[in-house]
Write a structure and sequence with these properties.
The complex is a heterodimer. In chain A, the strands form two sheets. In chain A, strands 1, 4, 5, 8, 9, 10, 12 and 13 form an eight-stranded mixed sheet that branches. In chain A, strands 3-2-11-6-7 form a five-stranded mixed sheet. Chain A has helices at residues 19-23, 25-31, 36-41, 44-47, 81-84, 99-103, 128-133, 161-168, 189-192, 194-197, 210-214, 266-270; strands at residues 67-68, 113-118, 124-127, 138-145, 150-160, 176-181, 205-209, 219-224, 227-228, 238-240, 253-259, 294-297, 308-310. By secondary structure, chain A is α+β, with helices and mostly antiparallel strands. In chain A, 19% of the residues lie in helices and 20% in strands. Chain A is globular. Chain A has one domain (77-324): Alpha-Beta Complex (Sulfite Oxidase, Chain A, domain 2). Chain A contains twelve helices and 13 strands. By secondary structure, chain B is mostly helical. Chain B has one domain (3-202). In chain B, 83% of the residues lie in helices and 0% in strands. Chain B contains ten helices and no strands. Chain B has helices spanning 3-29, 37-66, 75-97, 102-111, 113-130, 134-140, 142-148, 150-165, 171-185, 188-202. The termini of chain B are far apart. The chains are: A alpha+beta, B mainly alpha.
Chain lengths: 333, 203
């Protein structure tokens, strides 16, 4: 009979750090504030002289051919590209604004598959190349207003969602469009760990009414600043609805489904009192915890640049007001 | 700890508190503090104030545990820096977030519970900073300790301020709650005594 006598030096099962916790160690330390000083040093400028970190894989973007669409574009000062690609809410890659650019560099987008399904006559599946080549690409310079009361001006490259939906031919019974982000915990640390992903149930889902989805302003974006989308901005394809708060503009889309019922949406599930289905930009309806009357526009200039401006109804895209003429916007926030 | 060492320790605290703040303001002013320097600055000053407050609350239990009575002598310094960071946090909110739209300030303090509790905590820290001198300690006598016990309430309000301010990523605020409850738990005896006294007064 084999009798196993544990040695004093043996490690018992309960002494082993759980793998999830171990792999999360940087985030746990970071969240305890231990890294705050080093994080400051790791600002973009300091990274150029960071000799000690190993060469990591960099997510590559490629130039896109596109036409300008001036009638859809604003001529306000652009947010610098560096800021557009380094200040992101993409909780799949971490909740801090600087996490996505750090954690999404190894994200794989080719091959990709995006389906248009549900109440359509002609279901479609688009592969990576199809996303970039099926429709003529336009440049549209849109304002982006985050629900957190900051905003940017971004030159997107993409095509109207309506072009895609028309190709799929929605049935008469279709009333809503549901969107879904890729679910791939292996690639997305926020989906692996609730600590990294901000306690959201993944995959991230969003939705629009069909008439909102068909509006000419509603864009499927495959690029920004004339190049394919960086991973942290929602590569390879994302929605852009410029008159709604940014969280409606779902990233890295794999599924578009037409339905007859109002689809569930991620932030609404998480905090229904704070985030509604419509989420139209509205200076008169505050977030329960902060004001939406003003926004800070992120452009150039540091701390001392005066960038606080009034927020406009529908983020200044008044042409969509007709969509909501029978709707109480205070109740349907 | 010898008096000489204590001085060096204090110098270290001064440097440790001031240099990161100066560096952060410098980076923010040249737009090298992330995409939104205002958000980064508010976060940095807020978290640092909380860190310093926790450190100041840790000094007396630590002094007891390590039998280093001299450690108590840095408590006031840490507490004052906690107030200083909280003040810079508040002023940064007015200067850089509200950008001097004063009518919003009053409304925000009244309407937004997380700002209300943060502001009350700041007022408490302010009154403690004002009465932090040896002279006040003598003039206030017994009342001084009663007044400075309000620091525990300030800690709780700051932890509330933090957890109410985030969207859904509550991990970090929860860790801070745990740390706060830990330093409060180290004062269990004090709480017991206080509760007993209240009971006696009521009976």
């Amino acid at each position: 009979m084999l009798i196993k006598v544990p040695k004093k030096s043996d490690i018992s099962e309960n002494m082993v750090t759980d793998q999830n916790v171990y792999q999360d160690r940087r985030n746990i330390l970071k969240s305890m504030g231990f890294f705050s000083a080093s994080a400051l040093l790791a600002s973009p400028s300091a990274k150029a002289i960071d000799w000690f970190s190993k060469k990591e894989k960099v997510f590559e973007t490629a130039p896109l051919t596109h036409n300008k669409a001036p009638s859809f574009s604003t001529d306000e000062t652009l947010t610098p590209e560096q800021k557009v690609i380094s200040h992101n809410n993409f909780y799949e890659f971490g909740t801090s604004k600087s996490d996505p650019i750090e954690n999404a560099q190894e994200f794989k987008v080719d091959p990709w598959s995006m389906t248009i399904e549900g109440l359509v006559e002609n279901p479609i599946t688009l592969g990576y190349d199809d996303l970039l080549s099926s429709f003529p690409l336009e440049e549209r310079i849109y304002r982006l207003r985050c629900v957190e009361a900051w905003s940017m001006v971004i030159p997107w490259n993409g095509f109207p969602l309506a072009s895609l939906l028309n190709k799929a031919k929605p049935l008469g019974s279709a009333k809503y469009v549901a969107f879904e982000t890729l679910y791939d915990p292996k690639q997305m640390p926020g989906q692996r760990s609730r600590f990294v992903g901000g306690g959201i149930d993944y995959p991230y889902v969003e939705g629009l009414r069909l008439d909102e989805a068909m509006h000419p302003l509603t864009l499927m974006s495959v690029g920004l600043y004339g190049k394919t989308l960086p991973a942290q901005n929602g590569a390879p394809i994302r929605l852009v609805v410029p008159w709604k708060y940014g969280f409606k503009s779902i990233k890295s889309v794999v599924k578009i489904k037409l339905t007859d019922r109002k689809p569930p949406t991620t932030w609404n599930i998480l905090a229904p009192r704070e985030y509604g289905f419509y989420a139209n930009v509205n200076p008169k309806v505050d977030h329960p915890r902060w004001s939406q009357a003003r926004e800070r526009r992120i452009t150039t200039g540091g701390l001392f640049s005066q960038n606080r401006i009034p927020t406009l109804p529908f983020n200044g895209y008044e042409e969509v007001a007709d969509l909501y003429k029978d709707l109480n916007l205070r109740r349907n926030y | 700890m010898s008096p000489g060492r204590l001085i060096w320790f204090k110098v270290l605290i001064h440097l440790g508190a001031l240099l990161p703040l100066i560096w952060t303001f410098y980076l923010a002013s040249i737009d090298q503090l992330g995409g939104d320097p205002v958000e980064s600055l508010l976060h940095f000053t807020g978290i640092s104030a909380f860190n310093l407050l926790l450190l100041s609350l840790l000094t007396s239990p630590l002094a007891k545990m390590l039998k280093q009575a001299a450690l108590i002598k840095v408590r006031r310094l840490l507490g004052l820096y906690a107030f200083f960071y909280a003040l810079v946090h508040f002023l940064s909110f007015i200067f850089f977030e509200l950008q001097f739209e004063w009518q919003f300030l009053i409304a925000e303090i009244i309407d937004r519970p997380y700002i209300t509790v943060g502001f009350v905590a700041l007022l408490i820290l302010f009154s403690l900073a004002l009465t932090s001198t040896r002279k006040s300690q003598i003039t206030l006598g017994k009342k001084w300790q009663a007044l400075h016990n309000w620091v525990y309430l300030a800690g709780i309000l700051i932890a509330l301020h933090y957890i109410w301010s985030v969207k859904s990523d509550i991990l970090q605020p929860v860790i801070y709650w745990v740390l706060l409850l830990l330093v409060l738990f180290m004062r269990k005896d004090k709480l017991d005594r206080w509760l007993k006294k209240r009971k006696k007064n009521l009976a």
